[in-house]
Amino acid sequence: MFNIALDGPGGAGKSSIAKAVAKELGFIYVDTGALYRAIGLYSLRNAIDTKDIDGVINSLKSINVDFTYVDGEQKVLLNNDDVSTDIRLPEVSMAASNVSAIPEVRSFLLDLQRKIANEKDCLMDGRDIGTVILPNAQLKIFLTASAEVRAKRRFDELTAKGQEVNYDEILKDLNERDYQDTHREIAPLKQADDAVLLDTSDMTFDEVKAKILALYEERK
Q1: How far apart are CA 99 and CA 10, in angstroms?
Q2: What is the pLDDT of residue 69?
Q3: How far apart are CA 51 and CA 97, in angstroms?
Q4: What are the structural domain ranges in the chain?
Q5: Rg for the chain, CA atoms, rounded
Q6: Structure pTM?
Q7: pLDDT (tens digit, 9 = 90+) per residue, 28-72?
Q8: Which residue of 104, 107, 150, 206 is most buried, as measured by CB atoms within 10 A?
Q9: CATH among 3.40.47.10, 3.40.50.300, 3.40.50.1820, 2.40.10.220 for 3-219
C-alpha cells in the first residue's frame, strides 16, 4: 500500500487539503485528529475532566470510535453516532489535545490507524503520523502556516458553517494547543526527519494541492 503521512499544527488546513488530494488519487482519507476529538467530545458530554488521566482511561471501555465513508467522505462514529460536525466545535479542540497526551488513549487508537494503512492506499493526517503512526510512509509532509493565518482560516471555516466564533479566542486556543502539542512527553508534534516542510501561509489551496500531488508523483 502507498501511504502519505501529513502532519502539522491545528488550523494548518490539513483536513481540507488531505480530502482533496485523497480524492484526486483515489486514496482513503484518514483524519486521525477526529479520533482524538471524538474521545474529547465523549469526555465533555459525560462531564469527565480531560486532564483527569484515570477518568479518561476508565472511560475508554465505554467508547467505540470508527470511520465510515459516505460518497467518499469520512464520517466519524462515536458509539455508532455520527459526530462529524460536533467534534469541530472549538471547545472540543483543547479536550482533544488533553486526551491525546495520554499514552493509553494513543494505544487505544493506534491499531485502528495502522490497520487502515495496511489494507488500503491512504492519506493520513494528524500530529504524529510520520514520526509514530506510519514511520515507513512513502511520503511524509509537514504542513504548517503562521498562527495568525491558521486562526483566520479556522474562523472562516466555522463561520461558513453558521457557528458564532471569536477570532481572538481561536488564535489564543491555537497558540495554547501548539504549545501543548509540541511539549507533551508522548508523541509530541514535530517534523519527521524525512518529511517535506510545506509552509502554506502565502499559498493558495490549489497551489498546496498541486505541490503535494507533484511530490506524490516523484515518490511513486
Answers
A1: 15
A2: 79
A3: 10
A4: 3-219
A5: 16
A6: 0.78
A7: 888 888 999 999 999 999 999 999 999 999 999 999 998 887 876
A8: 150
A9: 3.40.50.300
